Amino acid sequence: MRASKKCSGCQEVKSTDMFYVNNASVDKLQVCCKLCDKLRIVWSDMKRRCYDKTNSHYSRYGGRGIAICKAWSSLDVFMEWCKANGWREGLTIDRVDNDGDYTPRNVRFLTRKENTKNRPHKLCEVEVRAIKHWCKTGMTQAKVAKLFGVSPSLVSKVFQGEIYASISL
Q1: CA dihedral sign of residues 16, 42, 109, 142
Q2: DSSP secondary structure string, the chain?
Q3: pTM to 2 decimal places
Q4: For the segment 135-161, what is each residue's pLDDT rounded down to a tens digit?
Q5: Planar angle of CA 166, 114, 98, nearest 5 degrees
Q6: Is 166 among the domain residues?
């Protein structure tokens, strides 16, 4: 019989291979299963984008006034809502209204590809310079697109000077 452990996040008893290794703990495993740990990362990244002024994405979230609903200040409440509303491994969190807050009425889960299609094609000056730089160094436009979460055609337009022509390296 396989060894099992109760996850402190979802409270489910799972096979120990569903937990990451943590050599500092008594049983050498993390307290949360891998899926709960991934949701914890989604939650903490969301908080950093909205509230950490040193976060590289703050200007597009917290800097524009995007916040997180009060109920989701609790990781447990956020995780419970996500699991009850379709989150599964491989999906990303997305706001339906890009000007709205992270709330149960304004959040959905999409694949990374779907989410990239939804992203407004507004790049900041630093992103435009970085895209031009990476393309000039020989990185493929597909890799640059993946790095910045935009389409390869957008990268091509930036690199060719069809858009953002006024921003140079």
Answers
A1: negative
A2: ---EEE-TTT--EEEGGGEEE-TTSTTSEEEEEHHHHHHHHHHHHHHHHHH-TTSTTGGGTGGGT--B-GGGGSHHHHHHHHHHTT--TTEEEEESSTTS-B-TTTEEEEEHHHHHHHS-----HHHHHHHHHHHHTT--HHHHHHHHTS-HHHHHHHHHTSSSTT---
A3: 0.61
A4: 999 999 999 988 888 888 889 888 998
A5: 60
A6: no
**Nearest to residue 94, comparing CAs of 114, 75, 67?**
114
Residue 29 has pLDDT above 70, yes or no: no
CA–CA dist 37, 33 (Å, integer): 6
Residue 116, C-beta contacts closer than 8 angstroms, at least 6 positions apart = 149, 150, 151
What are the backbone dihedrals phi and psi of residue 139, each rounded to the nearest 5 degrees, phi first? -65, 140
The answer on 21 and 9 residing in a single domain is: yes
* CA pair distance 128, 155, nearest whole angstrom: 9
> Residue 20: inside a domain, yes or no?
yes
- Amino acid of residue 137: T
Structure tokens belonging to residue 10: 């979802």
Q: Domain count of the chain?
A: 3
What integer pLDDT is reported at residue 117 of this predicted model?
63
